[in-house]
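Input structure tokens:
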């Protein structure tokens, strides 16, 4: 097999060893390069020498330039770009500091001590160190021996502890341990009855209690590696994945991707993973690219488990704000994660020491030939004529996978020739399970908070709430949010036998409070429109939000996890653009108190009419586990779509050429 085509999202790999000046060729929204990470590290450590301070880098990312500066540069790319800056969050002598580092000036231009609630993004290094603590803790070693287990087969992992009204003064994690011995599927063999809390500032166990010794789930049947699977086998899909002709219809110019009528910028961030910016669609009739979306990413992923017992009540993860989607992104496997026509992209983030960490093949970009129909029609009513026209559905996909503990999240952003953008999340991996003495449902006489999915194994019920930040700029950055209500009305003409019909009533939403929506309660279409731009027929140009998987939280609104995750109380929020409001769960999520979330920001009830606005959309899943999720969960997918609505004068796919035309015209010229 030929090597998969691959590009590097940032500068070439040798740049990791250089600290070069920033050049005008850098796009203002490019993610930080390896050389820039090293420059940030050098600037920070010069001010805070590690020899005199306990210093760790918790987050380093692009400090997004002011939006008007970016748009001004786009109009004249030959001019100097906006100042290149980095947002840096460090722990310095057990305190959190937030820095802005100017890379052109090679200096710290802002340095503030954070004194609020919550702690910054966890690093992989401190989590690994905490996970190793029980393996040297004598009470734990004695417990493992009493249980007849081999300590060499024990593997531990960490969980965040949340906040439950108490005053937190330490950065702590809970440590859970698992037993291998016959499987590599560690999450399905939890060692329970033990509570371990680790102080990650002092890196020592601060609390250890042992209660009972529940049975250990069996290893048999849990290993998912192809080399260990025994008959009977399932089908072998010899025809998948398909092998295309080798032609690619998209190209990269730096980090800007062009395909069909679409053009967008692709970035990568330690906290949120893939970032899609400056998405525009070339309108051949108007002979120009028209703005659709300035910046989009997954802002937060809230996963509350539903077991309120001593060992489980704290299991309420915020995967972006506590762990980092980009930090836990994994290298993609050609032909399995991505098809053979994919282009692979590397990503970088800062390790705890500030040095760049490379994640090879962290994203892939590919054309999807789905076998579906983009549009078709057969005209059968015209005498003596047989007319049939059909076009295949082809799209462009950007994909990343983040493995946060037991779950793997497959993140897709799909661009379609119709002008639509589809966002999808696939959930797979391994369930979080609880050990119990039961081997049959008839034995159960208590509330088990999940489903018996194997001997001695409960799959605990839980939710996944995925909140997207969607900064839409529909034909410009002055937009409004519109609700199109579908209203049932009586037929007034007594001569007509029909009694009812429905029609539409448009409402331009004026404030943040009026924009909050729980989808499914009322028949309504949701649009972002540009009130200053209209079609030739007089309709406001816009894009419609087409919901997909919808779920609303079932926890009490005053429950502590839901207070922290209050941004999921509504499926849709709309806020005026504010560069600092990009993480729905707040800037410092670990042990946060819910006082810096999307729900709090919108209490200001700001005006959102005819403004630069941001739409926040939460898709969700209530997951009641079943036996088919064991031992490896088939991918559960959901998503939503942004669909042009009166954005074009007519169907943008009318003039797409059928596949036998090999020389498609370049519509961008």
């Amino acid at each position: 097999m030929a090597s998969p085509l691959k590009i590097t999202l940032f500068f070439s790999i040798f740049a990791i060893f250089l600290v070069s000046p920033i050049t005008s060729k850098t796009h203002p929204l490019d993610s930080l390069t390896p050389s820039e990470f090293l420059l940030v590290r050098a600037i920070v450590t010069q001010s805070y020498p590690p020899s005199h301070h306990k210093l760790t880098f918790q987050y380093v990312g692009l400090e997004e330039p002011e939006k008007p500066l970016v748009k001004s540069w786009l109009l004249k790319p030959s001019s100097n770009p906006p100042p290149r800056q980095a947002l840096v969050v460090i722990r310095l002598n057990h305190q959190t500091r937030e820095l802005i580092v100017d890379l052109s000036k090679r200096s710290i231009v802002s340095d503030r001590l954070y004194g609020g609630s919550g702690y910054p993004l966890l690093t992989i290094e401190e989590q690994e160190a905490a996970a190793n603590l029980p393996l040297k803790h004598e009470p734990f070693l004695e417990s493992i021996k009493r249980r007849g287990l081999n300590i060499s087969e024990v593997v531990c992992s960490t969980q965040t502890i949340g906040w439950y009204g108490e005053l937190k003064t330490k950065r702590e994690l809970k440590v859970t341990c698992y037993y291998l011995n016959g499987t590599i599927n560690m999450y399905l063999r939890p060692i329970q009855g033990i509570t371990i809390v680790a102080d990650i500032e002092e890196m020592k166990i601060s609390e250890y209690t042992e209660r009972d010794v529940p049975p250990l789930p069996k290893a048999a049947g849990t290993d998912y590696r192809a080399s260990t699977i025994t008959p009977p086998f399932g089908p072998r899909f010899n025809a998948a994945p398909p092998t295309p002709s080798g032609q690619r219809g998209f190209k990269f110019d730096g980090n800007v991707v062009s395909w069909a009528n679409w053009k967008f910028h692709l970035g990568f961030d330690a906290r949120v993973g893939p970032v899609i910016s400056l998405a525009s669609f070339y309108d051949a009739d108007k002979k120009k690219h028209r703005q659709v979306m300035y910046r989009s990413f997954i802002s937060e992923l809230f996963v509350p488990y539903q077991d309120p017992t001593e060992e489980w009540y704290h299991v309420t993860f915020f995967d972006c704000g506590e762990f980092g989607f980009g930090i836990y992104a994994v290298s993609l496997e050609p032909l399995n994660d991505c098809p053979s026509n994919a282009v692979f992209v590397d990503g970088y983030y800062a390790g705890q020491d500030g040095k760049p960490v490379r994640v090879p093949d962290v994203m892939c970009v590919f054309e999807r030939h789905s076998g579906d129909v983009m549009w078709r029609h057969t005209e059968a009513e015209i005498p003596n004529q047989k007319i049939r026209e059909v076009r295949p559905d082809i799209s462009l996909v950007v994909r990343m996978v983040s493995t946060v503990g037991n779950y793997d999240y497959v993140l897709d952003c799909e661009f379609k020739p119709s002008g639509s953008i589809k966002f999808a999340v696939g959930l797979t991996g391994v369930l979080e399970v609880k050990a119990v003495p039961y081997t049959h449902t008839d034995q159960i006489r208590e509330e088990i908070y999940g489903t018996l999915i194997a001997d001695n194994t409960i799959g605990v019920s839980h939710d996944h709430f995925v909140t997207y930040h969607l900064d839409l700029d529909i034909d410009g950055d002055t937009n409004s949010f519109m609700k199109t209500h579908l209203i049932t009305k009586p037929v007034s003409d007594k001569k007509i036998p029909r009694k009812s019909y429905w029609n539409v009533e448009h409402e331009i939403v004026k404030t943040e409070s009026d924009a909050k929506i729980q989808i499914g309660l009322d028949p309504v279409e949701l649009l972002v429109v540009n009130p200053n731009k209209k079609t030739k027929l007089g309709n406001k140009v816009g894009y419609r939000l087409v919901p997909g998987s919808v779920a609303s939280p079932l926890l009490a609104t005053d429950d502590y996890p839901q207070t922290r995750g209050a941004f999921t109380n509504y499926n849709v929020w709309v806020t005026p653009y504010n560069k600092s409001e990009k993480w729905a769960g707040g800037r410092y999520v670990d042990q946060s108190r819910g006082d810096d979330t999307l729900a709090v920001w919108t209490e200001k009830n700001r005006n959102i009419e005819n403004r630069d606005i941001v739409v926040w959309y939460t898709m969700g899943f209530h997951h009641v586990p079943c036996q088919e999720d064991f031992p490896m969960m088939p991918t559960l997918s959901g998503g939503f779509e942004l669909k042009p609505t009166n954005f074009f004068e007519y169907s943008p796919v009318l003039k797409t050429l059928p596949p036998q035309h090999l020389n498609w015209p370049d519509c961008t010229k």
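The longest helix spans residues 34-47. The chain has three domains: 4-114, 124-210, 250-645.
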